[in-house]
Amino acid sequence: MRILIVEDNQKKLDKLKEYISKEFPDYEITDRQSYNSATKEIVLNYKNYDLMLLDMSMQTYDISEDEMGGEPEPLAGTKILSQMYLREITVKVIVVTMYENFVGTKIKQLDENLRNEYADIYCGYVFFSHSNNEWQSNLKKIINESI
């Protein structure tokens, strides 16, 4: 199994990778840290992936010495899902977020919208927290139901 993790917060990314490696040791993990690099990766290499863990909010570009990341995109994850839908990419997606609100939309409403719009690929969401590990059991449950 191959997982693409799309996450721009390095601490959260590290925790996700550590957990996946421990709980699912046979999974190969690739990560991307911005809207543009994630979109390019999934469009060009979707056949390489079985599952995507997708953050909703991220920078437009990868941060580097020459690039500050561009404007923050509060709903970049939905744009990636839209690109996947338009290209008929069927990689399963689990949203992993630290936020309860996105541009005036609560996570429960966003979850319902994503289930309706992307029913074939969207598997649900996990509320991530650095202060507790509840997200781990929720993520494990959704992964096991999705594959």
Care to describe what's here?
With 147 residues, the protein is α/β, with parallel strands linked by helices. It has five helices and nine strands, in the order βαβαβββαβββαβα. The strands form three sheets. The protein has a five-stranded parallel β-sheet, with helices on both faces. It has a two-stranded antiparallel ribbon with strand order 4-5. The protein has a two-stranded antiparallel ribbon with strand order 7-8. Helix 2 (35-45) runs parallel beside helix 3. The mean pLDDT is 93. This is Response regulator.
Instruction: Note the beta-strand portion.
Output: 15-25%
CATH architecture of the domain at 1-71 and 127-147: 3-Layer(aba) Sandwich
CATH class of the domain at 1-71 and 127-147: Alpha Beta
Tell me the series of helices and strands, N- to C-terminal.
Answer: EHEHEEEHEEEHEH
Going across the biggest sheet, name each strand in turn.
2-1-3-6-9
How would the blueprint of this fold be written?
Layout (H helix, E strand, L loop, with lengths): L1 E5 L3 H14 L4 E5 L2 H11 L5 E4 L3 E2 L12 E2 L2 H11 L5 E6 L3 E2 L2 E2 H11 L4 E6 L6 H13 L1
Parallel strand pairs: 1-2, 1-3, 3-6, 6-9
Antiparallel strand pairs: 4-5, 7-8
Quick recap:
With 147 residues, the protein is of the alpha/beta class.
Provide tags for this entry.
147 residues; alpha/beta; Rossmann fold; 41% helix; globular; CheY-like_superfamily; Response regulator
